[in-house]
Write a structure and sequence with these properties.
single chain; mainly beta; Immunoglobulin-like; five-stranded antiparallel β-sheet; 1 helix; globular
């Protein structure tokens, strides 16, 4: 009987990892820099006019404020295009609970407040950008080149183990 109780307790601790609720992992990454391909500052068009140079810095394509779902979650999220054309999803001032198996997803689901928002994100289309690096701070996630951003309207910090959103943000064009 003691062996069974120990196994059940061990399995429960592994599944829930309750100690993570008291452990914070802060990640403070700078916005990635990518150099634009060298080339002329401007180019001639067929009509003989000069086209403006491409932007020299990062461009915010969309952004949103995080709302809480299963756990209190605050901060902002931005989709950023770097000068080389690559795209990054960036959390700024993120603050949420730590948990087991947290992922960052781009989704096509609407962001709903409260319990109604917990389970909507795995019902439709989503792309996992990887494991959440930390539950606090500023962090970056590369968006694969083949992802059509027009197909995705929100992000979620998703607990894969329990199929629940810790927090989410609707993305609005910048």
């Amino acid at each position: 009987m003691l062996i069974v109780a120990t196994l059940v307790l061990g399995a429960g601790l592994y599944a829930f990892q309750p100690w993570k609720l008291w452990q914070n992992e802060t990640v403070n990454e700078a916005l990635p820099t990518a150099s634009a391909a060298p080339g002329p500052a401007s180019s001639s068009t067929a009509a003989g006019t000069t086209a403006p140079p491409s932007p020299s810095g990062p461009q915010t394509l969309a952004q949103g404020a995080l709302i809480s779902h299963e756990h209190s979650t605050t901060g902002t999220v931005k989709l950023i295009r770097l000068p080389d054309g690559s795209r990054t999803l960036r959390f700024e001032n993120l603050d949420t609970s730590n948990g087991p198996d947290l992922r960052v997803w781009l989704t096509d689901a609407p962001v709903k407040e409260g319990k109604e928002g917990w389970d909507v994100f795995d019902d439709g289309k989503y792309v996992s950008l990887g494991k959440l690096k930390g539950n606090r701070g500023d962090q970056n996630y590369e968006v694969p080149a083949d992802v059509n951003l027009a197909d995705y309207t929100s992000i979620t910090i998703w607990c894969d183990r329990f199929n629940v959103s810790f927090g989410a943000a609707a993305l609005q064009a910048a």
